[in-house]
Structures are given as structure tokens and as C-alpha cells.
């Protein structure tokens, strides 16, 4: 289940723990759950691909079959999307680790409950429960621009936030 502290290194004493907890924000987790909007941004955006490639070099990126289906469904629904765009998406998705739904299904009810009470969304939406459940399963941060996930108490990262950490500043 969720981490209880923001400290990733072992503390030899209480002073070490305090230094660790009171310093800078903890780094992104080694594995990051990628949300639909990030993948769409990489495919449809002009600057997101470079960001994706930088982050992919230093972190394990995971998604789900549901997220892949959401991305492909949204793209197929856009009239201006060409076949090569769909091929690009399939190539990008094949570079990610896919977590099957049965691995996190047991955590979906609690993830839905947490999302329905998230202050950031204020709409009670639980459509991203699968994203939160995957993050819990893997003890991984979420990479998303969706404000619904920001109110869950679980680390949710943006492009800028991840790049700032990886660039060291």
C-alpha cells in the first residue's frame, strides 16, 4: 500500500530521518505510471516527445491495456489522425511495460473511493481509479496532467516537475 514517508534512503538515526524528511522533495520513484494524457501529448504534441524520451532513459515507465485502449480509441475518433499516427502510438506503447488489470483489480474499489473524495477534481469522478490502483501496486509515482489525481495524496508528476528533477534543478 502507500508509502508512509517521503524518504527513500535509510536513516541511521532520528537526526538522519529528520534531515531526510525536511530537505528537498523526494525524487520521482524508479518506476512511473504513465496516464493517457501523457501518451496523447507525446503523439500529438510538438515538445512532449523529447520530454518523454528524457524521462524514459532514467525511469521505468508502465501503463495498462486499458490506458492503451483509451489512447487508441481517442486517436481513432479524431478525423485528422492518419495511419502513421496510429503506428507511432503502437510503437510508443510497445516501449512501455503493460500491467494487466488482474494485477490491480483488488485495489480498484479503494482507489475509486479515494478519487471520489479528491479535492482537486471536485466532481467525484472515479474514471482514473485504474491509474491510482496501478501506482499503489507498484509503489510508483503517477505521470499525468489530470487534476483528479493531484488530490489523492499520492505523488503525481507533470512534465515540468519530472524534467526539473532530472536536470538537477
Give an overview in words.
Strand 4, helix 8 and strand 5 (156-157) form a beta-alpha-beta unit. The protein has helices spanning 14-22, 36-44, 48-58, 65-76, 83-94, 108-116, 129-138, 147-150, 159-166, and strands spanning 31-34, 60-64, 97-99, 141-143, 156-157. The protein contains 9 helices and 5 strands, in the order H-E-H-H-E-H-H-E-H-H-E-H-E-H. It has a 5-stranded parallel beta sheet, sandwiched between helices. With 169 residues, it is α/β, with parallel strands linked by helices.
Compact summary:
Residues 33-161 form the PIN domain. This protein is α/β, with parallel strands linked by helices and 169 residues long. It has nine helices and five strands.
Strand order in space, largest sheet: 3-2-1-4-5
**Number of separate helices:** 9
Helix content: 40-55%
Bin the strand percentage: 5-15%
Question: Helix and strand string, N-terminal first?
Answer: HEHHEHHEHHEHEH
Shape: globular
Spans of at least 5 consecutive residues whose pLDDT stays below 50 are: 1-8
- Return the average pLDDT rounded to an integer: 84
* Classification by helices and strands: alpha/beta
Number of strands: 5
Give the radius of gyration. Answer: 17 Å
The profile of the biggest β sheet is: 5 strands, parallel
Question: What is the first-to-last residue Cα distance?
Answer: 30 Å
